[in-house]
Sequence to fold (277 residues):
Amino acid sequence: MNITDIKGTVQLANGVQMPYFGLGVYKTNDGQEVIDSVRYALDAGYRHIDTAAIYKNEEGVGTAVANHAIDRKDIFLTSKVWNADQGYDSTLKAFETSVNKLQTDYLDLYLIHWPVKGKYKETWRALEQLYADGRVKAIGVSNFLQHHLEDLLPSVKVTPMVNQLEFHPRLVQQPLLDFCKKHGIQYEAWSPLMQGKIFDIPELQALAEKYGVTVAQLVLRWNLQKDVVTIPKSIQEKRIISNADVFNFSIEVADVAKIDALDRGERVGPDPDTFDF
Fold:
């Protein structure tokens, strides 16, 4: 990943340019709250917005994008098919619902939200159809561990271009990172700030002081230096701007290793293997 500025991109396996820094809107309320959050981000230079059907704020995201001066084609928009909608026909229907709410006729990236056993292969077949039809520029998965990918890959026509997972200093999962890289699957982080828990880790506080940055900026820069696309969530304009201020410093290799060593296999979200779908 060539890290340049907030509008920088990483090239996916099919050649699509995906902005490596974006705004996540999980638990951001629909209506004015999410409209304002997306507007703050776009004003600050973000060009990547990540939502999902289950977030129930696609309408607000769509309104913010439609009303902004930036052209839709210059905004990378992601959504995800929810577990209850998985399956071939139901996924196609869910996609139409999402793009209608988002006031667009295509998505830049569409993901399977969770690996629902017995359903994700048919769901993937629907995503391949949407991709073939030009309705989606890239397709991928979310919360797929290595064994899920090993089960899925032999049956696909198109390899997932992205795998979005919980990723932060307490949950690095380096073997999964390596597996995705080997197969040309771009790793993407959700909850990169560990829903605020990173601020309680003394080693991160010390490193942030060394670089003269906030703990959040340190961790988000670490994400990028690990070649991981990152989408921190905030509804506060100052925080949204601050989170993106990670392009005027670089973490030394030895310090990247120190952050890697904080891995405890600790999750703040559900475990894909035990999540009650």
Summary: Residues 88-101 form the longest helix (14 residues). The chain has a mean pLDDT of 97. The longest strand covers residues 76-81.
